[in-house]
Amino acid sequence: MDDEPATEILEAAYRALCDHGYADLTMQDVAAEADTSTGLIHYYYDSKANLFSELLAHLYDRFTTELRSEPEGGPREHLAVLLDLLLADSETTPGREFRTAMLEVNAQAPSDEAIRSQLAAFDQALFERFREVLSAGVEAGAFDERVDPDAGAELLVTVVTGAHARNAAFDRAPERVHESVTRYAEAYLVADGSTEVAH
Amino acid sequence: MDDEPATEILEAAYRALCDHGYADLTMQDVAAEADTSTGLIHYYYDSKANLFSELLAHLYDRFTTELRSEPEGGPREHLAVLLDLLLADSETTPGREFRTAMLEVNAQAPSDEAIRSQLAAFDQALFERFREVLSAGVEAGAFDERVDPDAGAELLVTVVTGAHARNAAFDRAPERVHESVTRYAEAYLVADGSTEVAH
Description:
- The structure is a homodimer.
- Helices cover about 75% and strands about 0% of the residues of chain A.
- Chain A is mainly alpha-helical and about 200 residues long.
């Protein structure tokens, strides 16, 4: 534990969630992972439900920071970077175990208002980022002026959600839809006369 | 119970699943719904796991029959009918409670081989149906000859999966992406010079 024990506990909770899944996760697992006592975890986070809610808030901050990173290049590169980030090969990234744990968390959402609103916030952040990139692209002439940023963002968020669900539930590789959605971007979003390759 | 008690039990299991969710579902719930004894259910289906596996197989048959229905019209109407079927307004169809229960079932998939392979079979049936419709459309000149039926089907299945996940987890209306995916179909799939409206 370093001098930010509350944040250390959240990081440990993340690793313990990936290892044990949500239903089986105990405060003891988190304590073991953080190399501390369950007493200290209760001191900072009170209950498993509260710890988990704070973990989701922490992950939300990290996720939105990642989404907001501004790579070199224009809107088309931004879109390609976003799709790379969100549809990366699950076998070679640490995201897979997390997504599996999140399947369990998703199953809690209909009956747990706190989880439901946090999942909706992730979704909304992603939607807004896609919409921003599409808007900027239409404005800059990189995407066709007939592209509706809201409709395009809705489709892209839904694709990302579906890719994660299929990957976590039965190993469908997200790269397969990565290729499809890149073709979609090239064929549908890109303004006629642009010669740049989207990805 | 009519003269096909085994099928009646599956139909009752479906209704009980929608009412109680997967984790809380008991043989007693199914017996109450079927207006029969748990003894008879055990006689036909042995265990909850086996009953549920048979239920998924039964739903799979029903789903593939629905998918295979051949509406009037050409490939574009077929695609529109499929999207209507899969992305119908959740508030006015019985699908919502079932999808919520399926969130729980999805969460079992990573650790339950039988569930995982059945979910993969649903996914594969949907993929093949989309691919068939896209292929037929390219062949008939209704869709652009550059459309790759595999890539298009991958995108469409992923969109449908994502729409159901977002709807079940936090009430995102599937009609929103229905509109987006219809625009995608119009802009990307439809051959130049075709004047027919896809949806």
